[in-house]
Amino acid sequence: MTLFKIAFTNVRKNFGQFSMYLGSLILSVLIYFTFVSLAYNKSIGIIFKKWGLGGQSVFVAASIVLIIFVAFFIFYSSNYFTRSRKRELGLYSLLGLRKAQIGRIIFYENLMMHVMAVVAGVLIGIFFSKFFSMLLFRIMGLSIPSGFTFSIAAIGSTVFVFAIILIVTSANGYWIVYRHSMIELFKADVREKNPPKGSLTLSILGIFLIGSGYFLATRSIDDSIFWTENTFFASMLFVLFGVILGTWLLLRFLFPYIVYKLFQRKSFFYSGTNILTVTWLRYRMKKTAGTLTMIAILSATTLTAIGALSSLYTNIISYAESSNPDSYETVWSTETQRKAIFTAIRESKGHDLIYHEKADVYDANVIDKVDKNEPYSHHRMTYFSVISISDYNRLAMKLDNNSKKIKSLGDEEAIFLSPNGSLENSKRKNILTKKPYMLQFKNNSKQYKVKIKDIYNHTVLNADIASSVLVVNDALYSEIAQKTMPTHIDIFQVTNEDKAEALDHKIQAITGEPNSWWSTNMSSFYSNYHMMSTLVGVILYIGVFISIVFFAATGSIIYFKQITEAVDEKPRFAVLQKMGMSQKEVRAVVAKQVLPVFLIPLILGISHSVAAMIGMSLNLMFSVSAPVIISTTIYTVFFIIYYFICVETYTKMVSSEND
Question: Which residue numbers delimit the ABC3 transporter permease C-terminal domain (predicted)?
Answer without folding.
Answer: 61-171, 545-647
